[in-house]
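Checklist before submission:
- one chain only
- standard amino acids only
- sequence pasted in full

Submission:
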Amino acid sequence: MRRVSAQGRCPFWGVRLGYMVLGMLAIGSAAAQPAHYRGGLGLALFLAPAYPGSDSEHLFTYPYPYWEYESPTWHLHHEHLRAKWARHSPLSAGLGANGSPPAAAGTPDARAGMPGLDPTFALGPDVMYRLPWRPAGWRAWLGARARYRWAMGPGLRLTPIGSSTSAFIESRTARGRAWPIVVSFGPVFRSRGVNAYFFGVPAAYAAPGRPAYAAPGGYAGLRLSAAVSTQVGPVDFAIFGRYRNYAGAAFASSPLLKASNTLIVGVAVVWVFIRSGKGG
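Returned file contents:
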């Protein structure tokens, strides 16, 4: 059954706010470097599965603080902090964050009668290597990332869940284009704890058509992400999407996995009202 509803509870604002504070500190400590920064407020609206692998959908919306700071060796965005080993080095390392929205209890799908899922927050390092390949002005990177994930309960109580890793190739159009595009593709691997959080069925919640299931760790599918954006005066616009394919996943036999292919699509609008004198 497909069901669309609105949700306002989301963990990402705290992550973004933390990076915004870090950005202010970075500017104070690196003012002598040629750099620029931008700050503002954003609003994202996206349609996504009720939980990973669900065949029902929810409409999520949330506001967030936006911050970006860039110098020859540092790039601080509201979702990641990245440093180059040297000014012109193709190798960079970073610290990134992401999360997942909640799934309400009582949703009339495969999780009916099970407790709701809290939103999750994930944090960890990543490494990227810029490839010399630049067809038609595109730039490409090989990358790998690791994340540790926590569930965020009432009162921002964090409960550790487990870890995930992924490898990917990312490609971007050259700087200066009116509609820059970013595309990323690669496999994802998750620990038993993360897979069990989304796809496990405790014995207490077994039901006809939904037997108890202990999800193992391992391969968690392929992920393809894409985004296109533009800027009109003080406002940034972006359209983004993420496709997931769970064929061959370690938890493929879970009774909660109802869709082997899922899609997230959304839009974001950012009002930029803080910027350096050097543009951006």
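Reviewer check: Residues 108 and 231 are 40 Å apart (CA to CA).
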